[in-house]
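Hi support team,

I've been running sequence recovery on a batch of backbones for a student project. Most finish fine, but this one hangs at about 90% for roughly twenty minutes before it completes. I'm not sure whether the input is malformed or the queue is just slow. I've pasted the structure tokens below so you can try to reproduce it. Let me know if you need the job ID as well.

Thanks,
M.K.
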């Protein structure tokens, strides 16, 4: 039996997840990346796995399916760096909080409303408890850099090859069909190529006449030095989103609402953003000795309309997967893309997100 040769361009969480699932199904998989696993946007992700943030109802259902897929993936890889602490949300009060609660309840999403006393008990490190907050108990966090490495380890165990430090230069095509990938050090033959290289996707797609507009969405992520356990959940306040990771570090995007941040340039220098983020964290966590450890800047991979771009495109054998909130969707994309690549199945969940929409706006 001839094994399907599949090249995955990109060793972030999306590429690693697909490589794991495709290798499990017996294909001959090669993963290639110019850097190290999750060295781009994945490795600088906040890591919040959620469906409380979404563009529209269809997108919400995709993200819910993403959460469900993680539980299946954890059954396969119980050591995967994903936990389910839930989220405390008090970004708005009054009518804003009531609207958020009603919208999520109408969608059938698990949500609880708590008062200030219960909030203080759940998050005693927060200096000023809000009058009310919402709890999203089913939401999780993933350590994206570690997740990508674990998924690639699983792919290797299933027979995949991982090539790092080697840049993809162009997709080779003959007679309208993909034949391989030209990289820094030569030609890699392939029957199918998945491009999951984040913002690096656009140049590869342009060379094969596949339109892929990408938005400019820079983001800065601040990490503090480790602290004793203070925060059990993902915290979403009016000032910023933040959480504590497994190492004890407080992690916070510099944007007050980074999931919906649409700025094309950073509003300050990285060190200025870090100082401002620490200031806001200190106001929320009075008495906590917050010391800056790292500020990371990355360009979030956001297609032109803000939604995922996933599916076959261009020459036969070429497949694209690029999206923001890759951590939320990684487990699901691994499942669905593996099916579409190898079996020819078409997922209804992916129908609204096909790359062809950019060719026919």
């Amino acid at each position: 039996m001839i094994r399907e040769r599949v090249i995955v361009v990109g060793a972030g969480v999306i590429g690693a997840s697909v490589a794991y699932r495709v290798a499990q199904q017996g294909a001959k998989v090669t993963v290639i990346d110019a850097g190290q696993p999750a060295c781009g946007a994945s490795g600088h992700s906040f890591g919040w796995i959620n469906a409380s943030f979404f563009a529209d109802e269809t997108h919400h259902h995709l993200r819910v399916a993403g959460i469900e897929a993680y539980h299946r993936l954890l059954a396969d890889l119980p050591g995967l760096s994903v936990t389910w602490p839930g989220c405390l949300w008090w970004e708005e009060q009054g009518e804003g909080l009531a609207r958020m609660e009603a919208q999520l309840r109408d969608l059938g999403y698990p949500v609880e409303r708590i008062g200030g006393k219960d909030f203080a008990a759940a998050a005693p490190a927060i200096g000023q408890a809000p009058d009310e907050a919402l709890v999203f108990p089913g939401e999780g966090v993933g350590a994206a850099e570690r997740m990508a490495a674990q998924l690639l380890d699983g792919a290797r165990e299933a027979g995949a090859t991982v090539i790092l430090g080697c840049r993809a230069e162009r997709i080779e095509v003959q007679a309208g069909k993909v034949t391989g990938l030209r990289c820094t050090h030569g030609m890699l033959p392939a029957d199918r190529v998945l491009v999951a290289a984040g913002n690096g996707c656009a140049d590869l797609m342009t060379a094969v006449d596949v339109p892929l507009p990408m938005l400019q969405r820079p983001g800065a992520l601040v990490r503090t030095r480790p602290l004793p356990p203070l925060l059990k959940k993902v915290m979403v306040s009016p000032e910023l989103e933040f959480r504590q990771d497994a190492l004890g570090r407080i992690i916070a995007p510099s944007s007050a609402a980074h999931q919906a941040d649409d700025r094309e340039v950073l509003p300050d220098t990285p060190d200025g953003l870090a100082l401002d983020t620490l200031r806001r964290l200190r106001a929320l966590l009075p008495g906590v000795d917050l010391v800056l450890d790292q500020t990371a800047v990355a360009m979030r991979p956001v297609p032109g309309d803000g939604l995922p771009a996933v599916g076959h495109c261009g020459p036969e054998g070429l497949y694209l997967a690029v999206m923001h909130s890759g951590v939320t969707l990684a487990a699901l994309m691994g499942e669905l893309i593996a099916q579409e690549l190898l079996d020819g199945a078409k997922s209804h969940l992916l129908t609204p997100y096909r790359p062809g929409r950019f060719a026919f706006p």
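--
Follow-up from support: It reproduced on our side and the slowdown came from queue contention, not your input. The chain has two domains: 5-47+144-215+304-358, 84-138+217-300. No action needed from you.
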